[in-house]
Amino acid sequence: ASHRATASRTAPAMRARYTEIKNQFAASRERVSSALVDALAKTNVIGDERSTDSDTGTSASASTSRASLFGKRERKLKTRIAIDDAYYVGDQVDDDVGGAVDNLVRFDDDASSGATVGAAPRALITITRGTQMSFAENKSVFIVARIVRGDGTLKGRRIVTTSRSKTCEPVWNATRDFACAVDDDDMLCVDAYQGSSVRGIDRATLIARGQITMLALTRAGNAEVAVRLRGKLELDGERFGACMVRSDRARDVALKTTKRVFFVRHGESKWNEAQRDINIANMMRFDHPLTLVGVQQAQALGSRAAVACSHARQGVLVHANISDLSPPTMSPPSGPSSPMSQRAMSDMEKSAGEALCSSYESCTTCYVSPLTRAVQTACFLLHSHPNATGSTMRQVCLQSIREIKGVGGLDTVGIAQGDGVIARAQQKVAELINAHSASQLLSRGVTFDANDAVGQWWTSETDSDSTQEVEERIVDFLETIRFDASGDAVIVVGHSLFLQQFVSRVAPELAVSQDGVVGVTSAQAIPQPAANPFDDIPGINPFAQPAVDPFAVPPKPNDFDTLFATNASKSSGADDIAFTPFVPSIAPVMARIDERRDKKKIFEKLMNAKLCNAGCVALDLEFDERGRATLVDASLAFGSKFV
Questions:
Q1: Dihedral angle, C-alpha 268, 272, 277, 283, nearest 10 °
Q2: What local confidence, expressed as pLDDT, does residue 261 receive?
Q3: Considering only CA atoms, which of 451, 455, 470, 467 is closest in space to residue 414?
């Protein structure tokens, strides 16, 4: 009773004090905002963004009058900028703020920019990372960038990166096209916001701003340049670290481009095993690694891919989707007198299979989710890739392709970051098999890059991914694929739910023609080949159920010591028994191309069904001039199927 009485007496005073502090804060913020806006109008570095974006027709005259009035000051300011390569202006936000996802997806250009898409050189800039951003140690931060002319007017499109959480050294490596031509006297303005990029700029807090001339970026070539961030107009103002950027103006970027993505789902994980066995305790853990079966599945997929590529080089490939595997040292399964080699194979079938395998062999970059099961799958998969022995393969973590987290979903919560990601994957292999196998997890020719897997790259255990967050991640992934400079094809190791949402985002609207052929509305009809005379022969028909399912869970051996040198054994190093992949006992079978499939069914399968563990699907993406992606074709590869 005494506590309640005391609380009732002090409550009005506490409320009054809270209201007073709140009003003081609002007044202080208003004074700072007004001072910064006035300073902007005088210096004319940025100009009146609100008038420019709304295209009222008064921005040009206003800029002219300000330029004549403050011409001398403006020339001195530009000289100061050129010398320091970074002068920092104050706080002013566009009126057409919108959401971050809208900016990323729609890429709304300024009506007054006057830039012609395709004019050279284009403003292609990579926002690489942040340094010494102490304000982001326990918060989320994202970057907003614009191109500004010398007279203070905006040009091109505004770029918004995704948020990075709880790290003073955030990494983005986000290459973006500003959709405008740039001159040496143009400036790149970089704003650092605290908050969530999905919620938009109007709900975030502008912490610091910096800018740098395009001339300085061009002179640096492909090297990183630091754009120092400050909270005030003066150069001696409070520092908030720096944002590292890199200009790619010298790159010959095609407006229209096509990329092939070999999307691989991870092998069976401990969570999949716990779900099958209804083991709730194991399902409640974070970041599940692969099971022994999952390791076998990943190795088997790599072996099947190697066999398919070997057959393609020898000219005996029927299709890249081999339903079984033979060791790469064995001769091709079809001889000169076998029915398989005698059947007539169309030029389209042969070229499609060979092109698929050739694209896979040419891949030098493998983007992988930072979750342990995906990293382990990528490592085992790349053991059999031809570029893994030539020191040309890169395994790059990409947090945007991590699994989508629903309510619960603790298997999507990460544990390690940075170089700890690959260290955790090796640790779990050592616990599952032995230390020697863990040391050989990453092939000698593969370079591991933690990339943006720093800070809290995962969704926390108490949160779930919203539709807007998933959309933002998909757009970030598409932009990464679009500007990937390693070639026209990449390998991506990710998760089933992300694949479904990704295909739903890029799949086109399909229509049925009068001839009953289903395809892209504006595309040509898919040709119908003659019936295969060997469809009825057992063992050849790709639609027949095989005698042994290569993806079925093998029976657990009674004595693991006869198969693997586990931690229970005292042997180590060279005495360890080599870990060998699971090889089905049935004879290798080649599945022919089935051009009678229609795209609608394939796309619907990808959106509604799950790809098998350690399954692979080849996705052909087409990007238009504005960066919008469309899925033009998809096909299962290397013995994959839906479950």
A1: 140
A2: 97
A3: 455
Distances in Å between the Cα of 563 and the Cα atoms of 267, 390, 566, 576 are 20, 30, 9, 11
Enclosing H/E stretch for 305: helix 292-314
What's the pLDDT at 348?
57
Backbone angles phi, psi at 314, to 5 degrees: -85, -5
Rounded to whole angstroms, the Cα distance separating 238 from 194 reads 16
535, 596, 626, 580: which is closest to 325 by C-alpha? 580
> In degrees, to the nearest 5, what angle opens at C-alpha 56 toward C-alphas 52 and 61?
75
| Of 193, 44, 172, 181, residue with least CA distance to 109 | 181
Mean pLDDT of 134-140: 90
Per DSSP, helices labelled H in 403-446 are 420-432, 435-439
pLDDT tens per residue across span 235-246: 556 788 999 999
Q: CB of 619 within 8 A of CB of 634? A: yes
Q: What is the widest separation between alpha-carbon atoms in the chain?
A: 100
Can you tell me the mean pLDDT for 259-270? 96
What is the tally of helices (H) and strands (E) in the chain? Answer: 17, 18
Q: At 286, is the pLDDT very low, low, confident or very high (cuts 50, 70, 90)?
A: very high
